[in-house]
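Incident log, support desk, overnight shift.

02:14 A customer reports that sequence design results differ from what the structure should imply. Their input is reproduced verbatim below. On-call engineer (initials T.W.) acknowledged and began investigating.
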């Protein structure tokens, strides 16, 4: 066994080698007793993140906001909302993050502002306002109806009539989130100024919110009906988003963002675009018109939890990547069901091993390292505007945004007053303190996986060898230099044997097997994942 402890990986950027950890600031740590997390709270918990071993933190928005969409409705791109603290608190968090050798990525929301942003207040004041064209306005149809059939992602028409001027304005999300008009160069300049503001303070990059939504069809044509629409689906899915998303003009704007960040050196741009993988690839850009470094790959989130399906997904994604572009994987975030609920708790360790052994930058969502599942939210405590506007279709995001359980005390050490959302009811087993002390916990496994990834170039930056499924077992190899690691993930609830000529176990999801050597046959326990070091040139193993 020849594991290099601190590999020199010159030539790979930090955002390629590292693991990103997403924090939902409202729910990480409250420091002032108002039941909502804040920046000082995050600073207090940095040592935990250092202990866990992550390389970068991505913060969901902390900008000044009326919080109609909990910070994704920004009313000042260069301010910190008082709920989260001050600019001084932010600078302190950034400095302390850097002091611990970690990076800080900010969320940035270029598609829309809050309807309380001074730009929009000025734009809506009159049709002649100099800022009128910073947003998207259309006259009503003769009947008074909205200008076309476009729908909001959060339900209802994507148009709201402005009583003052008698025109509709466009919003891809809430009426409180009017879309900026990216065809106006003044908008571009203003947003660039905001990006520079944060880069000058030293942030290490941005996660760009919903970038596929930046442009809409200039002729405002109606969208076609959704051919997959059927009774029982939410009415918001009745039409496709053809003329609302993924227009080619988006790529020029991203190239502009890229030019700005590149001027600051080793920064990263991550892009959020919920699109089919084939379309996601365009967001890497081209050599002449660079895109984001990491267009999020969300496709594990909707994946069927089957070895063959995931093997195909991995191979398909890797095959689509343009030359020289870096992959990434997301298993959970603040918008989608918790991974431990999607795959069932018994599979949560397997899912963690999958995320942390695939080729490409992993993004780990806070609390997934503890195996948090979706938390039941009583109807009177529902806060998410999506659920409130389109109730009953399972869109609600509160269940995945609940406070981080740090210990088993009242409110889990998150706050000393009533938390803004309830905590998980299984806090006795799922809290940081308890799992930290238990070598068999998911938290300890996640930490071990991150550590293994860090010291093993085959895992952090290596290429793939085979990627296949053998019945219920997903198998893939990671190669670097003379090293070959093989990952075996048993999706079945039964013990499975698979041939393996020779190998040494590095890590198991199911107890201490490290150091065990394998000759001819590998035994996988129910739902067990294993990372095995296998000689580079051994005969390929046969499917049973
Ligand atoms: C995507 C974000 O992840 C989501 O939380 C938000 O509601 C929408 N964009 C609108 O900004």
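02:41 Re-run completed on a clean worker. Output:
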């Amino acid at each position: 066994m020849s594991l290099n402890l601190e590999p020199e990986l010159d030539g790979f950027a930090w955002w390629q080698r590292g693991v990103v950890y997403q924090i939902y600031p409202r729910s990480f740590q409250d420091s002032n007793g108002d039941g909502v997390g804040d920046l000082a709270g995050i600073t207090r918990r940095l040592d935990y993140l250092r202990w866990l071993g992550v390389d970068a933190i991505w913060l969901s928005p902390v900008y000044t906001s009326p919080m109609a969409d909990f910070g994704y409705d920004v009313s000042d791109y260069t301010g910190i909302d008082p709920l989260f603290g001050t600019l001084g608190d932010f600078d302190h968090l950034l400095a302390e993050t850097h002091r611990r050798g970690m990076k800080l990525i900010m969320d940035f929301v270029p598609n829309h502002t809050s309807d309380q942003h001074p730009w929009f207040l000025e734009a809506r004041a009159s049709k002649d306002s100099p800022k009128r064209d910073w947003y998207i306005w259309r006259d009503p149809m003769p009947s008074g109806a909205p200008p076309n059939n476009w729908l909001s992602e959060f339900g209802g028409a994507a148009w709201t009539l402005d009583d003052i001027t008698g025109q509709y304005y466009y919003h891809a999300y809430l009426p409180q989130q009017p879309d900026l008009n990216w065809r106006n160069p003044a908008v571009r300049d203003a947003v660039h100024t905001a990006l520079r503001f944060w880069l000058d303070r030293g942030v290490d990059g941005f996660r760009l919110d919903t970038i596929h939504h930046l442009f809409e069809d200039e002729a405002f044509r109606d969208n076609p009906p959704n051919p997959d629409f059927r009774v029982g689906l939410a009415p918001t899915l009745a039409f496709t988003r053809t003329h609302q998303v993924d227009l080619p003009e988006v790529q020029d704007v991203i190239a502009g963002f890229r030019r700005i960040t590149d001027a600051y050196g080793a920064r990263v741009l991550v892009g959020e675009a919920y699109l089919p993988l084939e379309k996601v690839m365009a967001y890497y850009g081209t050599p002449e018109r660079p895109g984001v470094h990491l267009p999020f790959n969300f496709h594990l989130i909707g994946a069927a939890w089957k070895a063959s399906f995931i093997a195909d997904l991995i191979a398909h994604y890797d095959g689509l990547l343009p030359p020289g572009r870096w992959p990434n994987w997301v298993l959970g975030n603040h918008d989608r069901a918790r991974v431990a609920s999607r795959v069932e708790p018994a599979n949560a360790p397997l899912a963690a091993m999958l995320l942390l052994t695939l080729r490409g930058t992993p993004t780990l969502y806070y609390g997934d390292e503890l195996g948090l599942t979706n938390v039941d939210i009583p109807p009177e405590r529902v806060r998410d505007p999506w659920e409130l506007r389109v109730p009953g279709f399972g869109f609600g995001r509160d269940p995945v945004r609940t406070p981080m359980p740090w210990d088993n005390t009242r409110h889990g050490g998150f706050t000393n007053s009533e938390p803004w959302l309830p905590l998980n009811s299984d806090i006795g087993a799922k809290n940081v303190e308890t799992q930290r002390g238990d070598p068999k916990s998911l938290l300890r496994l996640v930490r071990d996986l991150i550590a293994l990834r860090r010291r093993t170039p085959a895992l952090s930056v290596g290429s793939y060898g085979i990627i296949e499924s053998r019945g219920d077992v997903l198998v893939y190899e990671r190669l670097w230099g003379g090293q070959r690691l093989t990952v075996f993930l048993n999706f079945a609830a039964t013990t499975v044997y698979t041939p393996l000529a020779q190998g040494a176990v590095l890590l198991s999801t199911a107890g201490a097997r490290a150091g065990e050597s394998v000759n001819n046959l590998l035994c996988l326990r129910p739902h067990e994942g294993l990372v095995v070091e296998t000689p580079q040139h051994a005969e390929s193993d046969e499917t049973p």
